[in-house]
Design brief:
heterodimer; A: about 325 residues; alpha/beta; Rossmann fold; eight-stranded mixed β-sheet; four-stranded antiparallel β-sheet; 11 helices; 12 strands; about 25% strand; B: about 325 residues; 12 helices
Chain lengths: ~325, ~325
């Protein structure tokens, strides 16, 4: 059995009296020690999926309307708030995009790392402090015994993200959700953070869910990927075959619209592929048709009449497109 | 034309410094040299990209070229005219030739003005063309950047991020400038919208013969847009070369590290690329080291690197006219 099994998940947001399914019938599974990546533009439901797993959907606005999230056999969609608090941090942790705003500015980083350990593992102040120094060392902050008394403002962006990772890994969770962990960081720092995540995964066997919009990052970090569009799964499968031959026009566009660095640069510069238009508004979510149709070059009447079913390809590669064979 | 051979923008020994407070009652004045003695040229119709990480001084250099921050010393020659020494009247005329596209399309447009007014503003304030012709120009600009005429009456909040950046571009084009400084023009946009804006910028360049000074930290985007690249580290240009030279044969260890850090979808590149790790952070910019500023993180540094500062000099012939230049003791001069 997989570590995490999400089945037919539907998350609804209620905004100004209108109900919009921001996650619409999404299923996937995550094995222990695996890295799975969620890709898509902003507003496609990547972060919402993460928040649903963490039980952190916005209060009174968002709710899980249908489906299950089975973690180690337990359905998190039905778990009580108390149980979710035990799971968060202990079993599933999350790191966020902005290392500047997700740390508390008035506590030292040592206090913030210790807090997790004392709260979840009932360690005493001294033991928690010692463990915090160890953790800072593990995320490769030089001179951890001295830096532990620093405040967040005394650290660089990359160091703050390392502290966030230390906090997230403090209780040795089985799943680490990283929501755009390097978007705010420079490339050389991003490379350091990716190396760190890879090494930690090797050492601890933590499964990683990486949310990103950067196909390059997916190619470097993940084994499998899920491309999200307008709250639905557009494409899903192992990373290499998808990048080599995407079976959904949206995935194909996402890869082709970014100017990538290639092994040998040549004089020619092709025009970038544009995906015209933008992601549909929440009002259109949930309609029984292909939501990508308005931006798609392969659109046919069938796309407008009916929501595409998943077409299966080899090695667990699947695409929700009526024209997947033709892509 | 003879005019075309001359560089349109010529920057010589430009230095920008900011005063910083030192702690303590007797703490003297200290200066942070955000841009430290840099020189470069840009020809008409070409794109020079300045790349570097946050804090490298690339944005400050661009702002100083447009006289949006005061330069401490050095020269910015624009179309043969000393821009930094220009008097008020001359400056107003010169400003029409240099326009700016900003990074954040949300904060760089006045939320209280309608889109047409935003695009018209530079025309009104710089008065490059008579008042009765301005409406017509604004209409043409909207068409040129791919916005519909009925959108002229809308306010910025009624546009998406990509559309707002198009308004920013229309505003930059209003005075018919020869040089547009693009400061991270697409980094706040979604990837699919990025492609639209980059294609638009390239189309405008070939239609209007614009020069771009293109500031970015995204090396993939830079590779797509530029003719030449200058790499900055802590206020200094450490490498300057033509596009192909820089990306295919980087010389400076910092450039190599920067390129090797970019994740790529190209499997061949991933396998061929050896990751060059540069540990730690840049040194304190208020008190930079005496020798090479990159020495403390450099994988090939030797004694000489911490003793003397390397000059930016030609290391290979390269493709560009001014050769492939790098500032490193460990790279042999051609």
């Amino acid at each position: 059995m997989a570590l995490l099994e999400v089945e037919n998940l539907r998350v609804e947001l209620t905004l100004r009296g209108n109900i919009a399914p921001v996650i619409d019938d999404v299923s996937f599974s995550l094995e222990a020690g695996e890295t799975l990546s969620f890709v898509g533009e902003s507003g496609c439901g990547k972060s919402m999926t993460a928040l649903a797993i963490m039980g952190l959907l916005p209060d009174k606005v968002g709710r899980i309307a249908a489906g299950s999230i089975r973690f180690d056999g337990e359905d998190l969609a039905k778990a009580s708030d108390k149980r979710m608090r035990e799971i968060r941090g202990n079993e599933i942790s999350m790191i966020f995009q902005e290392p500047m705003t997700s740390l508390n500015p008035v506590y030292t980083i040592g206090e913030q790392i210790s807090e997790v350990l004392r709260r979840h593992q009932n360690l005493g102040a001294k033991a928690a402090h010692a463990k915090a120094v160890e953790l800072l060392d593990a995320v490769r902050i030089p001179n951890p015994a001295a830096r532990i008394n620093d405040y967040p403002f005394q650290m660089s962006g990359g160091q703050r993200q390392r502290v966030m990772i230390a906090i997230a890994l403090a209780c040795e969770p089985k799943i680490l959700i990283a929501d755009e962990p390097t978007t705010a960081l420079d490339v050389t720092v991003q490379a350091q953070i990716f190396d760190l995540l890879r090494d930690l995964r090797k050492q601890t066997g933590t499964a990683i869910i990486l949310i990103t919009h950067d196909m390059g990052a997916v190619a470097e970090m993940a084994e499998r990927m899920i491309v999200m569009y307008a709250g639905r799964k557009a494409e899903d499968g192992p990373v290499e075959p998808i990048i080599a031959h995407a079976r959904h026009p949206y995935t194909k566009g996402l890869i082709a619209c970014v100017p990538h660095l290639h092994a040998e640069l040549t004089e020619e510069r092709e025009r970038l592929v544009e995906i015209g238009g933008i992601v549909p508004g929440l009002a259109e979510f949930g309609a029984n048709r292909c939501l990508f149709a308005s931006r798609c070059g392969l659109r046919s009447q069938k796309c407008l009449d009916q929501r595409p079913q998943e077409q299966k390809f080899e090695a667990g590669h699947a695409s929700a497109c009526w024209h997947a064979e033709a892509v | 034309m003879a005019d075309d051979a001359k560089p349109f923008l010529q920057v010589e020994n430009l230095t920008v410094r900011f005063p910083v407070k030192r702690g303590g009652m007797f703490g003297g004045k200290a200066y942070l040299y955000a841009v430290d003695d840099i020189s470069f040229q840009l020809k008409r119709g070409q794109t020079l990209a300045i790349v570097g990480e946050s804090g490298s001084g690339k944005t400050t250099a661009a702002l100083a070229c447009a006289r949006l921050v005061p330069a401490h010393s050095g020269k910015v020659v624009l179309d043969g005219q000393d821009f930094l020494a220009a008097s008020d009247v001359e400056l107003r005329k010169a400003r029409a030739k240099v326009q700016f596209i900003f990074q954040d399309p949300y904060s760089s447009l006045n939320p209280r003005l309608r889109a047409e007014k935003i695009v018209r503003e530079p025309l009104d304030s710089l008065q490059t063309i008579p008042a009765e012709k301005r409406d017509e120009v604004v209409q043409k600009l909207f068409k040129a950047v791919g916005l519909r005429p009925e959108q002229m009456r809308l306010f910025p909040h009624q546009f998406s991020g990509g559309q707002r950046q198009r308004i920013g571009i229309a505003r930059a084009l209003a005075t018919q400038p020869a040089l547009i400084i693009c400061d991270e023009p697409v980094s706040a946009l979604d990837v699919a919208v990025q492609a639209q804006i980059l294609n638009l910028l390239r189309d405008l360049q070939s239609d209007l013969g614009l020069s771009y000074l293109f500031i970015s930290h995204d090396l993939g985007v830079v590779q797509h847009m530029c003719d030449e690249v200058a790499v900055m580290y802590m206020g200094k240009i450490v490498e300057h070369a033509s596009r192909l030279d820089l990306f295919n044969a980087p010389q400076h260890p910092y450039t190599k590290a920067l390129l090797s850090a970019v994740p790529s979808v190209d499997k061949e590149r991933r396998e061929a690329q050896k990751r060059i790790l540069i540990p730690g952070d840049p040194p304190d910019p208020i008190d930079p080291p005496k020798g090479c500023r990159f020495a403390n993180r450099c994988p090939i540094a030797q004694d000489i690197c911490s003793r003397s500062e390397p000059a930016l000099e030609v290391k290979r012939r390269g493709q560009g006219e001014s050769g492939h230049r790098a500032a490193c003791h460990r790279v042999d001069v051609a």
